[in-house]
Amino acid sequence: MRSRRSVLAVPGSSPRFLEKAQGLPVDEVFLDLEDAVAPLAKPEARQNIVAALREGDWTGKTRVVRVNDLTTQWTYRDVIEIVEGAGDRLDCLMLPKVQDPTEVVWLDTLLTQIEKTMGFEVGRIGIEAQIENARGLVNVDAIAGSSPRLETLVFGPADFMASINMRTLVVGEQPPGYEEGDAYHYILMRLLMAARMHDLQVIDGPYLQIKDVDGYRRVARRSAALGFDGKWVLHPSQIDAANEVFSPAQEDYDHAELIIEAYEHYTTVEKRGAVMLGDEMIDEASRKMALVVAAKGRAAGLSRTKRFSPEG
Ligand code: GLV
Ligand code: MG
C-alpha cells in the first residue's frame, strides 16, 4: 500500500516549484498539466515535467502527473509525451473530471500501447481518477471498477461545487444557509463506498484558504474520520497538518498492533474466538479494524511502543 496522506499539487509550468517540491516531506507529488497551467503554457509544461521527472530527485515520493480531461484536445498528447519521455520515472497518471468508465479504459489502453512501444513493464503505471461533477459521482461505482490500474479515487471539490451549483465559493466549508448537517457528507461517503468496494484508496481534494491552517485541519479531520487516506496540499504550510491528521495516533497504532498480536495468540495457542484484552472484548471483527489502523501506521512509518504479553 502506498502512503498518500499528503498529496502536493505542483504546477508543471513552474520550473521553480518543480524544483522546490522535491525537498518537501509529502507522500505524493502530482505534477499538473491541467487547471494550474494556462492553455498556452501546456506544451512547455509537458517538457518541464519530463525534465523534472528525469533529472530530479523524488526519492520517497509517489510520482504522479495530472493530464487534461477528455473533453479537451490536450489529453492524448499529454499522455504520449509524458509517458514516452519519462514513463520509467512515473508511478501514476491522474485523470481529472472522469464522468464515465470508458474514459479510464481509454487511458488504460493507451498506456498499454506506450508501455509496449517503449519496452516498459506493461501495467506498472497506475491511474488516479478524479471525481469532480454530478455525472462522475453518479457513475462512480462503474468508474471504480473500470481498470486494474486504478489505485485511487480523488475528490475534486472545487469543480464539484461548481458542477452542482452549491452556493459557496469557499471549498470545504459549509454553504451559508445550510445549518442542518455536513453538505459534503453524502459525496464523501459515496466516494468511499465505491473505492472500498474495489479496494482502492480515496483522497480528499484541496483546501484553498492556504493561510488558514486551522481550517485545513478541521476539513481534513472530517474526511480522515470517515476513512479517507489523505488530502491534497497546495502549500508547504498544509503539509504537517495532512501528515498528522491522516496518520493514526501513536496510541491507536499501538492498540491496533496489540489487538492483532493478542488475537493471534488466543485463537491459535488457546483456540478461543472471542477473548478479553484488558477490559475490552475482541473478536474477528476487532482484528479487521485493527489491521486497517496498523497498515496505515506502518505505511506512515510509526513504530510500536508496546508489546503484548499473554499474562496481561
Ligand atoms: C480539484 O481539482 C478540484 O476541482 O477541487
Ligand atoms: Mg478540478
Automatic annotation (TrEMBL):
Species: Nonomuraea glycinis
Pfam families registered for this protein in UniProt: HpcH_HpaI
GO BP terms in the entry: oxaloacetate metabolic process
Annotated positions binding Mg(2+): E132, D159
HpcH/HpaI aldolase/citrate lyase domain location: 5-236
Keywords in alphabetical order: Lyase, Magnesium, Metal-binding
Protein name, UniProt field: CoA ester lyase
Cofactor(s) in the UniProt record: Mg(2+)
Keyword Nuclease found: no
Record-listed substrate binding positions: R66, E132
Gene3D superfamilies: Phosphoenolpyruvate-binding domains
InterPro entries per the UniProt record, alphabetical: Aldolase/citrate-lyase_domain, Citrate_lyase_beta/mcl1/mcl2, Pyrv/PenolPyrv_kinase-like_dom, Pyrv_kinase-like_dom_sf
